[in-house]
């Protein structure tokens, strides 16, 4: 570094992390496998961040936006039917994995399907030692639903820290967005494992995506 280019010390870590996150996600990102049950999980040899949320909340779209790929995570054909955990690797060599968790909250699911989902997700959350953080996605138009509260409770009980992420922020007016954000943040404060910072994103417009990339990298390094 030449003279005159010395950065402010207090700015360094966050800026470095943001740039590193940008570079990592612009590099190798690869679909690894789809695990229909826990016996098919990959070895727990890299840190992981899991994406959770109601079906149709925009989970696949957010994974695509964060990784800068058009369709690495496919939009599910039949909402609520996918019950697999999908793993993606980031980095060359691999540094961490993203996990696309099966969606929840679908209205007409048979009791058996819901029970199977619950058991799969709960066992994964409790036993996955490399899971550094979960992201709980919440639709900006709807705010928290009881199924989200259920998910948050499962995470609290499994002691898996999570970030709340509002999706589809482009779909609501700024005033509505602010009101929903305030309500969600307020409720998050009552949950022991919820991160205090609320992320507001739009996969469509790219809003909040760089910040989320940086947060994910910080989480896998923690
Ligand atoms: N306007 C808008 N639509 C979105 C956004 N993210 C997702 N969607 C749409 O919401 C629907 C569900 O998205 P998808 O990613 O498949 O949700 P998933 O079921 O949670 O994986 C699709 O029609 C997406 O195009 C967003 O940021 N803005
Ligand atoms: Mg999906």
TrEMBL record:
Keywords: Cell cycle, Cell division, GTP-binding, Magnesium, Metal-binding, Nucleotide-binding, Septation. It comes from the Bacteria. CDD domains: YihA_EngB. Its cofactor is Mg(2+). Residues 45-222 form the EngB-type G domain. InterPro entries: G_ENGB_dom, GTP-bd, GTP-bd_ribosome_bio_YsxC, P-loop_NTPase, Small_GTP-bd. Necessary for normal cell division and for the maintenance of normal septation. Belongs to the TRAFAC class TrmE-Era-EngA-EngB-Septin-like GTPase superfamily. EngB GTPase family. This is Probable GTP-binding protein EngB. It comes from Alteraurantiacibacter lauratis.
């Amino acid at each position: 570094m030449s003279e005159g280019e010395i950065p402010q010390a207090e700015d360094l870590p966050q800026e470095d992390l943001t740039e590193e996150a940008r570079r990592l996600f612009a590099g190798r990102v690869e679909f690894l496998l789809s695990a229909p049950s826990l016996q098919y999980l990959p070895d727990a040899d890299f840190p992981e961040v899991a994406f959770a949320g109601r079906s149709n909340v925009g989970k696949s779209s957010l994974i695509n936006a964060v990784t800068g790929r058009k369709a690495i995570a496919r939009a599910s054909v039949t909402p609520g039917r996918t019950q697999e955990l999908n793993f993606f690797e980031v980095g060359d060599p691999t540094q961490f994995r993203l996990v696309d968790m099966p969606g929840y909250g679908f209205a007409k699911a048979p009791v058996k399907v819901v029970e199977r989902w619950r058991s799969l997700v709960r066992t994964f959350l409790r036993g996955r030692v490399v899971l550094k953080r979960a992201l709980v996605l919440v639709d900006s138009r709807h705010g928290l639903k009881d199924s989200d509260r259920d998910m948050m409770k499962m995470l609290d009980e499994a002691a898996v820290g999570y970030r709340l992420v509002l999706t589809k922020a482009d779909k609501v007016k700024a005033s509505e967005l602010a009101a929903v954000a305030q309500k969600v943040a307020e409720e998050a404060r009552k949950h022991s494992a919820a991160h205090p910072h609320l992320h507001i994103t739009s996969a469509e417009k790219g809003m909040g995506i760089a910040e989320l990339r940086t947060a994910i990298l910080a989480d896998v390094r923690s």
